[in-house]
Specification:
Helix content is 44%, strand content 0%. The chain has three helices and no strands.
Amino acid sequence: MTTPKRLALPMLKDLPTLDEAGLKNFQVTIWHGLYAPKGTPAPVLKKLNDALKVALKDPDFIKREELLGAVVATDGRIEPAGHKKFVTEEIAKWTPIIKAAGVYAD
């Protein structure tokens, strides 16, 4: 399991994380973000973000996501600046690895 915590998915709940198995600080996850075109008015962005935060706290939504093996973000990534920081860090982390491997997704 490459997530920092075990997943709630019944078939995977007993599978230890790589951290638990001794490979410390190794984390590879799939993540999603909500994006809008450059120049989108600030009130529109706020309305979208407010709606997203409501959805991310909905117990039924969280349960459905967990049954799919997903973990709903609850940290600073639910704010635009936090998500931008996260994406920037992910790019910085993976760019050298991708370049060294010479393998790219098309």
